[in-house]
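Bench notes, afternoon.
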Amino acid sequence: MATVKDVAKKANVSPSTVSRYIRDSSMVSEKKALKIKRAITELGYTPNLSASFLKSQTTNLIGLVLPSLSNSFFAKFVEKLTKVLKKYKKQLLVFYAEDREEVKDQIKTLLSFRASSILFTLEKKSHTLSTLSNSNNSYFLQLFTDNFPDFDSVIIDDELGTEIATDKLIKLGHKRILLIDRNNNVFAKRYSGYKDAFKKNDIPFDENYILSLENSEIYVDLIRAKIKETNPTAIISVTEDLSQQTCLVLQELNLEIPKDISLISYDDSYWAKLSSYSVIKQPMNDLIDNVVELILNHDTNKKNNIVKKITLTPLFINRNSTKEIK
């Protein structure tokens, strides 16, 4: 196995120059960097970063723990965040965790990698994470939830988003509005926004028009049964995959959008644009900007005892999937 000394010998530079190049190529002249890069390629050398991690106690690694990797919104978030962090010579390492214990396990793994920042979503407060934060140099940032008062957070006002969508449909004359969502901490906020819209418009709220789904990949049977049971005139479907499964059910039932039933989806994906569906759009660019700013400035905020709690506002984009009813 090739070593730093082997690379240095082949590139005709000192081992310390190779080490500087591995840490940050900009620390080495362009001529030497090119020679080192060529030597690394020819020798098939792979740097052992663990030793430098242990020395420095931190890295340029940013850890991200998400509840899903199939969600198109999360996929786009990862893609955009990766590109922006590269500009600051930071690398993003993404983990997927289905439940609370997995989140904690993945965070422990990121701490072992000496990640400088750890971004995560957790539905309930955990004493373990508070302890880990106090015992390590990593910066902890909550995304989409805010259950730790001492941790910075960036959330999207999901309660407002669903209230806006529901209110738009009510103004179009709809009263039988089915809300389809997964049963999680964010759902509780959307449920509240949905309920508030009915209250604001002096319309009785009916719990039967809520479909709260447990974790699974395929929901078409449950969606079909709920639509047949409630006969809604409109549907608010949260996340792209739920909306796609909802549309499959509507097609199967020979219900056309918006002729027979109105639909508002979440996230302004290419699929939603292509289908001309009205959506609640998450403020992706604002989300990325705020996350990156917190990562870059957390040392200053910590020194000044500032805890940042940022709430972003979603937008409603009206297209051709809703219609007025009499």
